[in-house]
Amino acid sequence: MGESVARGLSANPSGSPEQELCCVLHWFGSWSPCQRRVFVGELVKRAVPGKVCCLLEGLSGLALTDRPPTLFQCQLRLWARWFDSWTEDQQNQLVSRLEESAPQYAAQFYRELASTAGRQ
């Protein structure tokens, strides 16, 4: 993570949306292709919050376990909290930045988003 972003987040743990966005993009760059696909799926679920099908699919991923969460799971949880607090423009900025830095994953996002059309 850029040092200025790290310093800003340590001074203000919640950070600004721009700092949070930088963190998410940094994490995305370090994730494996599999983790990136999981993230895109989570992004679709958050982008279409009213779709029951997405909510039910999200519930199927909940499991009780004795193991502590992985770093990736912690990052996803933190991102989800941030994303939900962002304005629509800030949320769209994340997708725009993904289009620039990882076009294949942005394309996956749009394909999955389109597949939710017409599903209740």
Automatic annotation (TrEMBL):
InterPro entries with a match to the protein in the record: DUF4508
Pfam families the record matches: DUF4508
The protein's name in its UniProt record: Uncharacterized protein
Organism expressing this protein natively: Chiloscyllium punctatum (Brownbanded bambooshark)
Lineage of the species this protein comes from: Eukaryota, Metazoa, Chordata, Craniata, Vertebrata
